Amino acid sequence: MFVNNLNRFTSSFAANFKFYKNISEQYTDHTILDSVNQLVPEKFLKSSLDHQSLPPLLHWFKNDLMKWMPKELQCSSCHRRMRVQIKEGDSKIFRKTEVHSCDKCDSSIIFPRYVKILKIAEVKIGRCSEWSILFGAILNSLSVQTRIVHDFLDHCWNESLINKKWIHLDSTLNYPISFNHPYYYEQNWGKEYEYVFAFSTNSIEDVTRYYTEKWQMIKNRRVNEDKANILKKFYSRV
Ligand SMILES: [Zn+2]
User: Fold this and answer.
1) Tens digit of each residue's pLDDT (9 = 90 or more) over 75-114
2) What is the 70 CA–ligand 1 centroid distance (Å)?
3) Ligand 1: distance of its center to the CA of 103 in Å?
4) Which domains are seen in the chain, by residue range?
5) What are the strands, taking DSSP E only, across the chain?
């Protein structure tokens, strides 16, 4: 019984873990990093990135490079809300595909959720996952060690190693909240975390405590404190 419950528990994380492991592996691939580096304007290539130079880079990424894909679209000719269907995809190229279609005129918009960073760099559109995946790759290409963070609710962002400390960075938000505002989601979006994990190629780190001012409540929410350790072991095997 315990084993079955454990399997169910870990398998609910499996697809997610595989995905972030794949992204973390791409962050160490120099061909990929060299390629995304080509997107970066020259002014950001000259100096080393720090607390001063990161805000303009965040601004460029959000306002000049990327487009946001809304969850719901309106048909451009009929102005009706489009219907959304999710199709599971080939896990090597895209996780899934969203098909937005208009019931009246039959037009449709297809939005593939790519796994490959170079595909995201090509289309430059997405939501928090595409944005944080590409922004993380760009920072790694600028020699700022950066990882992906996921809250297992509905959001993900980055952390970069700056002055030997992992600092919160969220390219989807406006500066200054995009930089070193770890309590923002809890304070403004009412997040009730159980786990927030930061991903590397070989390991995950439970970073929940960095994002909460309600640590005792989260500890109470976690029925079994061993879960984090079970998940850490599980990640090394996915
Ligand atoms: Zn239409």
Assistant:
1) 999 999 999 999 987 767 888 999 999 999 999 999 999 9
2) 17
3) 7
4) 2-66+124-237 (3.10.620.30), 70-119 (2.20.25.420)
5) 67-68, 83-88, 94-101, 108-114, 125-126, 146-150, 156-162, 165-169, 197-199, 204-206
